Amino acid sequence: MAEALIVYASLTGNNETIATYVEERLKAAGIDVTSQEMSQAVADDLQDVDLCVVASYTYSGVTDGELPDEALDFYEDLQTLDLSDQVFGVCGSGDTTYAQFATAVDMFEQVFKATGATQGSPSVKIDLAPTADDFAQLDQFTDKLVEAVNA
Ligand SMILES: Cc1cc2nc3c(=O)[nH]c(=O)nc-3n(C[C@H](O)[C@H](O)[C@H](O)COP(=O)(O)O)c2cc1C
Question: Per-residue pLDDT for the chain (151 aa), expressed as one digit of tens each?
């Protein structure tokens, strides 16, 4: 059975909702899924699974469009990994009122690409809490990830 690790960062619950939804969809497709909150996650564990999924909000520090503080260690460790045997997918909720909308999604996509991992689906960006349209997008996202893992 294929294994997936979902790592999420969520302050007010939107990305946790997204991660839970993706988890349920992957499980329904027969994948063995573990979900972890990002500050508890160990990036090395991604090497032990077939599919890596990140769901992260975007925060602002000095400028808009930054990673959440609790994502920094995980993100740094991710840069050191060889994930050339893994498929990855990135999604995340941000807020379109910020000029740098959901850019944490782009940052994770870039770092996964640098690890040599295969992008199983285009990334999905969601404005605040997911709507029915967003869940439909997440359906396509998970379908593509499952297809890529089973290929
Ligand atoms: C202080 C602060 C700064 C934020 N900066 C950004 C930003 O630069 N870009 C963005 O897209 N969203 C930004 N957001 C919005 C969050 O990413 C958005 O509300 C997201 O849905 C939160 O996800 P969560 O419910 O999983 O915590 C910011 C939110 C806060 C509270």
Answer: 999 999 999 999 999 999 999 999 999 999 999 999 999 999 999 999 999 999 999 999 889 999 999 999 999 999 999 999 999 999 999 999 999 999 999 999 999 999 999 999 999 999 999 999 999 999 999 999 999 999 9
Residue 82 covered by a domain: yes
CATH number of residue 127's parent domain: 3.40.50.360
Q: How far apart are CA 50 and CA 32, in angstroms?
A: 10
Pocket of ligand 1, candidates 60, 62, 108: which has the most ligand atoms within 8 Å of its Cβ, to mutate? Answer: 60
Number of domains in the chain: 1
Please tell me if the CB atom of residue 94 comes closer than 6 angstroms to any atom of ligand 1: yes
CA distance 58 to 25: 24
| C-beta of 56 in contact with ligand 1 (< 6 A) | no
pTM to 2 decimal places: 0.98
